[in-house]
Amino acid sequence: MRFKLFVVCVLACGFMAYVLANENISTEVEDQIVNKPAPAAPAAPAAAPIKSTNKLAKEAEFVEIPVVVPKKTAESVVKIVEKVAAISPKPTVGAAVAAAASPAKLVPLVHVAPLAAASSRGTDDILTVAGLKPQQKSGALVMPNDYLGELYDLDSTGYNWDPNNNVAPPDTPSTAAGGYTISSARLAELRSTFMYWYFDRDSYGGRGDYQFDIHASMTQLHKNLNFQMPFYGFRFNYTRLSLNGYLEFSDPPEYLTYPLVFPIKDWPRKRDPSFMGIFFSKCRVGRIYPSDVDQRTPGVYFRVVRDLMGRTDRFGVEVRERTMWDIRTGVVGADTFVPKHVVIATWKNVSFAGGIDNSLFTTNTFQMVLATDEVYTYLMFNYDVLNWLSHTEAGGDTTKGEGGVPAYVGFNAGNGTQAYEYKPYSQNMVIRDLVNRGWANGFPGRHIFRIDEQILIGSCNKDIDAALLPLTFAPESGNMLGGQVVNITGPCFDPNIRVTCHFDTESVLGTYVDRNRVICVQPFLKAEGYIRFQISVGTQRFKWRGKYFVETPAAATEKIFFATEDVHKRNPNEIRITWNAFNLTSNLNANVMISLWGYRETKIEPQLEYIDIIEASLTNTGSYVITPSNYLNRHNINNDMQFGFLQINLTQPAQYSNLALSPTLWSRPIPLAWYMAPQWEQKHGKRWPRALCDNWIRADRFLRNFAADLPLCPCTLEQAVLDLGRFRPDRECDKDSNPSCLRQRGAIHCVVSGTPVAQGAEQQCCYDRYGFLMLTYDQMWGSRPRRIHNLGKMPWNEASKVPSLSMWFHDMRPFYSCCFWQEEQAVGCETYRFERRPSQDCVAYQAPGIAGVFGDPHLITFDGSAYTFNGLGEFVLARSTDQSERFEVQGRFQQLPPNYYGEVMATQLTAIAMRGNTTTTIEVRLRPLHARWRYRLDVLADGRKVYFDRESLKFQHFDGVTVYTPTYLLNQSQVVVQFDAGVGVEVVENEGFMTGRVFLPWKFINKTAGLFGNWSFNPMDDFTLPNGQVASINLNDQRSIYNNFGLKWMLTDRDVPNVGAALFTREFGRMASYYSNATFLPNFVMDPADFLPSNRSFVLERAEELCGECLQCQYDYAMTLNRDLAHFTKNYYDSLVNMQAENAQRVVSCGVLQTPRFGRKLSFDFMPGAKVSFECNEGFILIGDQRRECLANGLWNVPEYGYTECLREVYYTRRVAFIAIGIIILVICPLMLCIVCGVYRYRQKQLKEDPHWQMTLPRSRAGSARNLRVLNYDPEEDSDTDASTLKKSRSYDKVYRTNEPLPGKPQIDFPAKKWDLDMNDEDVTSSEGEKPKQSGRRSLRSASGTELNEHGQPIAEDDDDFDEGDVHTGVMHPAGYHQPMSPEEADHLHQQQYSPTFSGVDSRTSAASSINYTPQAAQQNRFGGVPVLPNNSQYYSRPPSGVPQTAPNTTTTATPLRIAPTLPAGTQLTQDSGLPSPPPPLATSPTPSVQKSTEV
Predict the structure, then answer these.
(1) Residue 871: C-alpha distances to residues 846, 891, 1027 (Å)
(2) What does the DSSP assignment read for 1457-1477?
(3) Which pLDDT score, from 0 to 100, does residue 1250 have?
(4) pLDDT by residue (tens digit) across 1209-1264?
(5) How many other C-beta atoms are found inside a 10 Å radius of the C-beta of residue 1098?
(6) Are strands 993-1000 and 499-503 parallel, antiparallel or unpaired?
(7) How far apart are CA 1242 and CA 1245, in angstroms?
(8) Which positions ≥6 away from 946 have C-beta within 8 Å?
(9) Which helix (H) or strand (E) holds 420?
(10) pLDDT tens track for 990-1039
(11) pLDDT value at position 1454?
(12) Quick check: 228 pLDDT over 80?
């Protein structure tokens, strides 16, 4: 037994010695070659080197580059040549001197064919695999004497800077100013070599880049990078260099099965490595022949060159410039890339593992070049020689490495996430074609990739064919107006074969650049969002496809910048613009043209038309000043265009890659008053803004009313921010990214509806610094609804549906002409604000319902029920039960990682998927732990990843859904999804822990189901099962919730009735069963004190310290011992509870309070308790209430003094006058009408009692005079009366009512005086002007106060006593009334003088008066007036009214007071027979029926 063991040990030692000898033979051969003295050069004709040189020159491609060489430089070159003359052939010296002295230098660009090897052995014996002979590449190392200029580039230290030198340069990085500057010729020489630098020696006697520690017994070596290198979503600061043809970042599995499949499906049970595989196969260090061209040591080389951006030393500058230009020209989209760090890994002459005999001489040589700026990472594969394909474990043979499964070429992100296999070469027999494919930078065998976030190939692929092939292009988005240059890589191109690019519905021809790239210029597209982008090569179908994002003009990446806001003004002096000159071309001497374009909609098709050239030719300096006065005399046909764009393009497109079309830069939409104003003034006059506004108003009134379709604005900013289902931030006024708010001055934030409504309209809600809604009723800067959404509406190729352009035409354009270019109180502006685009108040606003999930996980339903459900798998969070308005929100719960004490029996939310009726499916995933350095969440739209890291991509619209991230975030840690039904989903990530919140409008009340329950404002039905029944569950019984409710909503890949099918994207064959486990039993005990062991009481104390009274937070910390999870659980819980409390509050608003015209409100608040004061402009007067108050019931207080108005002073005066007249009309007229009616009723009553009753009306003095003239006596009877004057004392039957005599005053009788009633005489009773004042009897007093008579004599005292008999002169009629005096007595009294102020008192106290005045006498006339005698004899025979008449046959004995005149029989009393004659115009005196009494 011992002998057997001894034999085995001996055999093992012998085998190990044999292996070590084979491994070290290459080193021995190398040492022999290095230490061997150089053999003497054989004698050769002098012309031989020249012949070789001529042959090289004949086979090379030269470019003439003028070089001005100073004299000193030429001399230094001669000295260098003399220094190496002993070892350099003479013709080479001559050539070097000639080159130094020549004014022009011929520099080989790319193709430099090496000369024949010195060895007589053919290269086919070594470089041929199965008869394949790879093409020769420039840069392959040859023997020292076989290439031109081996030692021509020496520095002061004697180091040879030839690219093929195998000795490393001095390692002295420098950042000092004034360092090395590389020339274009030197750069061209470096880039003409295929392989990058790798050195097996250095200047200090070391091994250079050679990794001698890597060999068969130790296949990998750890390397610290000392910088962050992004790779496939992760970021690493280290790597592991492996002999097996890859760089890895995590441990591979213990054993591999072939063919290799990544990612490993059994992860995390089985390790899933992260690696970059250039030739992933088991290798070992090979050998070389002494006669091989490149005698560098076989093995693995590795070099890191750091901090290249600031390096000024020669090697650092050359590495940076060479790598930068190779990547910029080799990969589309890398035009601005500058490498910061470069890693070069080379596998030289490596053979396959398991080979025997001479298999070590069957070797491959390949190189990997990594370049990164710590944000973007590019990788270059250089395949120099591939002689074997697979190793023996993969099925390859032991001598040639043929057969079996070839090597794996590709990338794996690790941790079970994602992988990329380079098809069709990886693990396929065509892998040998890698040497002859790629064509990056024109080299066969070079392949370039971008690998930081996703793997994007940068080289062509000739050998792949399928129905759908991935297309690589950059940039991936462009302005809808067109002009974006798109670089395309995919198939290998031929200059003689046509390439067609198809953008959605538009096709353009591509321009050939090289075999690896074609350029297409994007045309004008009437679309937005992601569209189909595909190319066709020759007659092939469109099989190379991708997705191109179209930016709306109003939201596109800004390419032309305006220094000020002058472009929006009515008449600016100048407009300054700038642009990035490199966006057009790298040639800054190129000429550009600036032109003006406009847009209008006068037909069905949109009209984007050219207007004028602003500058025909301008050097591409990146700035220009537009002077509007230069365009005063323009007369454009299309001068009705009111807005448009500035365009900048190259005047000679051939300066940019020989393009037939020029790349184009567009500005944002701008108004055109600065250009069109003079033409509008000629057309419409000085008030052209009003004319433009009136034209728009007339046209807009013919269009439908769209305001009813819009969602109502929230009342406050807090409510608007929380309504994530219907509103998103407005790009034009965003508190986080654009606070300028040009067209909403005074606002700090605006929101707009996330998706267009059914008719394509858009709501806008703006809020002031106090957080209150701004209304157009208050100011012109208020919230303005829009007829057309910025996203437009399908189909986009019709008028009024074009994204951005239609919105500007219908909504932005009139704002400028009606308000911005006019006064706020202009008629057009007020029509625009109050009628055509009025703000909608928030009186009927309804806050959305909110439900959420967070932690491990905890859920709060729409009705506020809180519970914990630790299910493992995919579940329905919320779904609609209404078939007309459908939506689904699903969540994926995965088990939490183990803690210090072991496995954690709880889960967490890791992904959410959602979909509407027919919308795009959106999925939001939590990225792996080490992949969150740049993006925290992955967003997939229909299974395709989308990113939001650029401004123009912050808001992305898909079919029926809008997805956006806050403008202030770049890491995608918060994603908001809005569906056209008003449903919103918000996903937030912090430190690897997600929360999901769902926002629903009120139309989904009683129409929801799932883990978030039925939203009915009744928590009792929250646990509704898929069959519609309500489970009877106790919220404190977590086991019952888990088994009887939560698991009922688990999803599968098939459609389950009332549950649905899973919406998640399936990758790498992972179906729903991969994530789901119905047998998983979590911890059902919620109180940490009940499930923590007694020896972990400190955990409970720590949980209470971190969480306070939040039970969810305490539970999460006790389960996981993760402080971050506990902290964000508490944060998410508090946020969700506060949101629900905020939205549950009843929204009370008083609505719109009209601002008076020509006035303003001092506050725009309309919430309960708000007090709003008013002011008027100068020259106006405020009437009505100066302040109004919003009451708690949501109504404005009733105005006390009327509604507030502002009136001009003249209008105010008119109004006061009209009000006064109105009061008179409304008060006095009804009063007069009442008086007239009263008098009329009284008269009717009296006439009913006495048909002969007459009402005496007061007459004027002039009327009395006319009546007295009518009663004038005959001139024959009165000598004092002539035809023109009436001076007659007349006795009246009644008296004046003067309320006399006064108490305690004597009663005086005055003699009658004549009345001077001539019209020509002045009125002696008037007190106006210089007329004499009236003087009556009362003025007849002595100086002592004694009453005097008419003769000036004192009146006796006894005359003051009232004597009835003195007053009654004449005879009492038996009927009880006075008998009038006889004519003789009247004539006697006429001769007496009467006082003009004759009164009843005078008649009572005068014995000569003919009127018997007794205040108490019943016989007095009831009207107290003076009766006028009738003109017939009935007066004398009829008793006064009120006195009963005597029967006709009754004889009275009483004598009448006045005897009637005696007339002949049959003759009546007339003017000729006893009555005074009237003046000549009156033929007869009035009859009794029309006779009016006169009362003076």
Answers:
(1) 34, 10, 20
(2) SSPPPP--TT----GGGTSPP
(3) 84
(4) 888 888 888 888 888 888 888 888 888 898 888 888 888 888 887 777 665 666 66
(5) 9
(6) unpaired
(7) 5
(8) 939, 940, 953, 956, 963
(9) strand 419-421
(10) 999 999 999 999 999 999 999 999 999 999 999 999 999 999 888 889 99
(11) 46
(12) yes
CA distance 1296 to 1293: 10
In the numeric block, which tokens belong to residue 215? Answer: 């060999």
In this structure, are residues 1118 and 1099 in contact, taking their beta carbons and an 8 Å threshold? yes
Short-list 309, 311, 308, 312, CA closest to 178: 312
Structure tokens given for 504: 């959605």
Return the structure tokens found at 1217: 């006058």
Rounded Cα–Cα distance for residues 1051 and 1059 (Å): 7
Distance CA 807, CA 730 (A): 14
**Sign of the torsion angle spanned by Cα atoms 1378, 1384, 1385, 1389:** positive
pLDDT at residue 452 tops 80:
yes
Whether the bond between 103 and the residue before it is cis, its omega within 30 degrees of 0, is no
How does pLDDT run across 248-284, given as a tens digit for each residue? 999 888 888 899 999 988 888 889 999 999 999 999 9
For 942-977, the three-class secondary structure string (H helix, E strand, C coil) is CCEEECCCCHHHCEEEECCEEEECCCCCCCCCEEEE
Helices H, strands E: what count in the chain? 26, 62
What's the CA gap between 325 and 340, in Å, rounded?
13
- pLDDT score at 1016: 93
| Chain-centroid distance, C-alpha 52 | 70
**Nearest residue to 992 (alpha-carbon basis) of 856, 876, 1103:** 856
The residue length of the chain stands at 1496
Report the pLDDT value the prediction gives residue 1432, as an integer from 0 to 100.
45
Residue 1370 has pLDDT above 60, yes or no: no
Comparing 1392 with 233, which gets the higher pLDDT? 233
- Which candidate, 645, 628, 644, places its Cα nearest to that of 681? 628
Are residues 662 and 482 in contact, defined by beta-carbon separation less than 8 angstroms? Answer: no
CA distance 75 to 83: 12
Strands 560-562 and 544-551: unpaired
Structure tokens at 471: 């297309």
Which uninterrupted H or E stretch holds 76?
helix 71-83
Q: Is the pLDDT score of 116 beyond 90?
A: no
Please give the pLDDT value at position 589.
84
Helix, strand, or coil here: 1142?
Answer: helix
Q: Which of 723, 700, 704 is nearest to 713 (CA)?
A: 723
Residue 97's pLDDT band, with cuts at 50, 70 and 90, is very low
SS in 3 state form for 546-584?
Answer: EEEEEECCCCCCCCEEECCCHHHCCCCCCEEEEECHHHC
- Which range among 157-166, 351-360, 797-806, 904-913 shows the weakest confidence by mean pLDDT? 157-166
CA distances from 237 to 228, 233, 276, 347 (A): 5, 14, 15, 22
Q: Do residues 396 and 383 lie in contact, with contact meaning Cβ atoms separated by under 8 Å?
A: no
Dist CA 103 CA 1340 (whole Å): 147
DSSP secondary structure code for residue 784 in this structure: -
What is residue 394's three-state secondary structure?
A: helix
Six-digit token string for 1093: 């062991």
Q: Which residue has the tokens 């006495």?
A: 1250
Q: Provide, rounded to the nearest whole percent, the portion of the chain with pLDDT above 90.
A: 47
695 CB neighbour count, 10 Å cutoff? 14
Decide: 807 and 554 in contact? Cβ < 8 Å: yes
| Range scoring the smallest mean pLDDT among 114-118, 583-587, 1097-1101 | 114-118
Query: Could you tell me if 936 and 971 are in contact, meaning their C-beta atoms sit under 8 angstroms apart?
Result: yes
pLDDT at 1352: 55
Is 1016 strand, coil or helix? coil
Tokens of 1061: 């099918």
Identity of residue 2: R
The pTM score is 0.72
